[in-house]
User: Fold this.
Amino acid sequence: VHDPCPEFYWVTPSQSAYRIRVARSQADLVAGKALVWDSGKVESLLPIAEYAGPPLENGVTFHWTVQIWDTAEQSLPLPPAQTFRLDVQPMPHHLPTIRTFINFGGNAAFARDWLDLSFRKEAKELRKSVLTTRYGLICTLLLPHPSTGKPLSGKAKALADFCVAEGLTTAGIPEEMFCHFAVDTKVNLHLGAERAANPRITRLCRGWDPRNDRNGDGRVDDDEAGRLVSPEATARRPEQSRIPIYFWGPPRDDFVMNVGHPSYQKFMATIWAPQLCAGYDGIYFDTVPPDVAGPGRSAKVVEYPRVGKGHDKWLRDLQMMFAQIKIAMPGKLITGNCWNADPMANDGRQSEGWQSLDRSLGHWRAGIDQAIELDRRGKVQLIQYNPIFDAELAEFGPKLPVTQERDKLYGLATYLLAHGRFTYFGFGRHPYAGVTKTWFKAMRHDLGTPVGAYYMLADIDPVKDLDTTNLLPNGDFEIPDVEGNPAKWTTAEPIELDPVVKHGGKWAVRITSKGPSINNINKLHVRLKPNTDYTLVAWAKVDRVQGEPGAQVYPYDFDGVKPGMMTWTGTRDWSEQRLTFTTKDDPDGRINFRLYGAKGTVWFDDIRLVEGITVRQQVFARKYTKGLVIVKPNVGGSFGKETASTHALDGTFRPLSADGSRGNPVRKVTLRNGEAAILERATP
Assistant:
């Protein structure tokens, strides 16, 4: 096993909970003594769990077993114990300090000189140590549009042949392998192909509701259509409600597949994934949710209701498919694109647009901490910095008045704070064809290896006491109303006042969610001054907040105010965030706090709104054996010299420029808001 925190997977017809035990010997496992890890009883429908015990030793054989409770909460007989041995090897890199990757851009010569991971197979011809990854779509299927009269080809033909061989059909692909809209849904897609030059067209996709098929013959006849059980679903046959994904046909249609279908999972694991991966070191699977084509990505889907007990079924089904692929191809590197799943049954993930200079301090630090946590768990991460200066390489063009030099160094320095055993650095996003022209020689410098984790170098707070100027009545939640909720606030369940876990005073607000469908907006309406600067300050503590966006505090409904949010994720003790905004002519709005799209627990306390810009700047650093990296994340407002602060260094260093040149030796460095420095230690 090449993963320091491996996943355990089992097959069971029914499950409500599990308990995993790991030991160094069969005798210890049977006796339940000297266990390396005991998960305890965990309520879960997913037959996959990630190891979460003390670090495992390389080269040692471990024994494990799983106890399963079925949906009737009855304990099933213990299956035979299994064994595994850890074999975690260092991941090589071509450049001295970092590992690099590019999705599709660059040729073989560029890969030879720069990359450790490439999506181009020919890269290995010039340097064998380059990992090559094949791009594949795991959740979708291309079919020829019926108007073309063309036969199935590629993945579609392979799937149809598989279904015939398995006895599922006599020809073609079973309809239950596709996903279907549950109600009539308008979808806007490009025509012919997903290209900016192609027009976008809105079409009505009719929904399928099996209840409308009263006689169960697989279609809605004229009589049934006249008395629909569900008038919002007007499809006469299931195939009319297939969910499109990227474009309209002709010449081809592209549909979302039912990833939970057992035979589709078997096909992907045993036929298509190995075929895709032939000649490559691994696969990067592009995964999409089934409702991605609907408005707001919230369409109703027959196979995946996304609410209630089955809200996480899509992720569970994806996990099971990835587990089967890993079993079929244990030596291949299997990654996916940034879908939220815990545990992660593949080898890792890609985060496109992982960080950017305009990302606020709270979001920036959450991204750093998440990358570090995934690295601790042994997950390969392809993290791709999104530049903001280049209209071709930044999705929406230039956003901030900074130079390319500043933006590039900020991206590399941010990566170096999170750099670990399994991280890869990329630069730029769509379109990939031009990304190589922005790569820069500072990446080639040898900073050595990290010396410990990143740390806070400076905490610059111009305001000592904000309590007397708080414009939010009961922003500290010290006054409960008659229902036990924070007075003055309009609250939404689930919310509680917690007298034990708090930042200050008698109470904090606690919100706990068991699933990602939550969006409990709690709000306080305020009337401020027009055309005036304000700072919003909030403290929060989070415990296993998983999902996106997470726990948030933000101003809302102020006309003309650029939206901004303070976000907390993961597990972290009390931490403060601040956000500045300027009202326009209409100063009425509200302050919201919530837990949105995530599970876990958050505590909020001491939410304050004060007049003026009271920005708390924080500067972070990380030591390397041959250098030092310092980053001053964006806290809003200006990026000019008035935001600068100077920091003494513990020796003499030479700052790097993006072009790879070294500056004069320095013993201190001055950074503005949203700026970084990469420093080589000067030799005597």
